[in-house]
Amino acid sequence: MKNTLKYIILFSFSLFLGCSEDTVDLVGIGTITGRVVEAETFNPIENAKITLSPTNNATFTDADGYFTVEDVEVGEYSVSAEKDTYLTDYQAATVSDGIEVNVIFEMEDETALNRPPSAPNLVTPEDGSDEQELSIELIWESTDPDEDPIVYRLEIKNDYNDEVIAVEELSDTTYVVSDLKYGTKYFWQVAATDEINDEVLSAVSTFTTKSNPENRYFYVNKADNGNNVIYSADIIDEEVSNEVLLTSEDQNSWRPRKNQAANLIAFMRTYNNETHLFTMGNDGSNISQVTSSVPINGFNLNEIDFSWSSNGDRLLYPSYDKLYVINKDGSGLEMVYQTTDGSFITECDWSNDESMIALKTNNISGYNVSIFTIDIAGNVLNTVLSGVNGAAGGLNISINNKLLLYSYDVSEYEDASNRQLDTHVYIYNFEDNTTLDLSGGKDAGTNDLDPRFSPNEAEVIFVNTSNDGVSQKDIYTMTIEDDNEREQYFSNAFMPDWE
Hints:
Layout: H1 2-25, E1 29-38, E2 49-53, E3 58-60, E4 66-73, E5 75-82, E6 89-95, E7 100-107, E8 121-124, E9 129-132, E10 136-141, E11 151-158, E12 164-170, E13 174-177, E14 185-193, E15 200-201, E16 205-209, E17 217-222, E18 228-236, E19 239-245, E20 253-259, E21 264-271, E22 274-280, E23 288-289, E24 307-308, E25 314-319, E26 322-327, E27 334-338, E28 344-350, E29 357-362, E30 370-374, E31 380-385, E32 392-397, E33 403-409, E34 423-429, E35 434-437, E36 446-453, E37 459-466, E38 473-479, E39 486-490, E40 494-498
């Protein structure tokens, strides 16, 4: 009986031990699923590497950003998602037996922690400063906390029109802006970016350019693109000062004529393949077209000249064989004269009292020249030059109607190019019908062209150039008395006006 009980006890103990060992060896498993998307757009991220720690089991996301890790032992895990150009993300996961755990990764771009540059500080010119030059260096400063390269964008506006000066892709913190307008307030602002973060903007700073110097000389020069451009300048202590570009190099503009009463400059400009009259302010602002239906026309647009009325309310201009008058605002167009022989009117000048108009006419080749005066009704008053060979031009009536300034090629040469060989400046006296040659002191082989009286009529301003037709033109003055003393004022310039 005792032996039987002993065996029963031993058998039961062995069963207990067997059951205990099976329980220790069995470990529960679960599944981790999830998805990886972009933090901002929630677009799926394909082929992101998913890693479990501490086991280092790994898998990759599919095209829709999903992943599954099966047979994960019960426990606590750190799950990471990583892919190039993104910041590695971590999520905690607790795996339980037979349970599916889902984790979502919202991965940020690797630049998400990058910081933008500081807002630019505008250093020079000082905010609100006055009397600035028309060419000015703008200086600002900015730093990037991550030492990324900074790219700047500059924008400049003004208080008189909608023009915006915009400069992109600057790497330096300085920029020189030129060709500003006199007496104008400018607003400028700088944007900075490291090309990772959004732009940061500076505050808006202002400066005002110095006042218009009221230059008295106007002339034309050639831009690099071949267009004529108009300048103003002054002569101070026998030096050229305050030279100002009045018209854009993008447009062909020439023959400036200032009227003091209107305080405007009239000029010719190519517009829609025609030549029209325009006006502008002394600083080149407020450009306004005058003519429209009847453009300026003739045998050579570079030779054509027009005239203001003395009070500045109207303009007189030629178009082929006709002479027109028009109000400065473009209204009131009226034909006032037409040649009787069909010859072209190339130049005109209107006397100060508006009682007399001087005209130069010529044929289609620029020759068969006549210079004469008419009254406003078209009646011929005086014939100054007629029946001669060679070219002529440059009409200007003196303030008292007693003198007429003009030029004439005494060589009487004529060819298809309208070349002049020996052009002199003359003054015709209406009282005694005499002519005075002012060009006795010019160099041989040169021409004196485009003469105009000085404001006090003691001098003449004109162009001198070689008669080869291609050399540089320079602007001179000479006295009417005292042996016609000559002095060069402006180099590489032509079509002068002195008011």
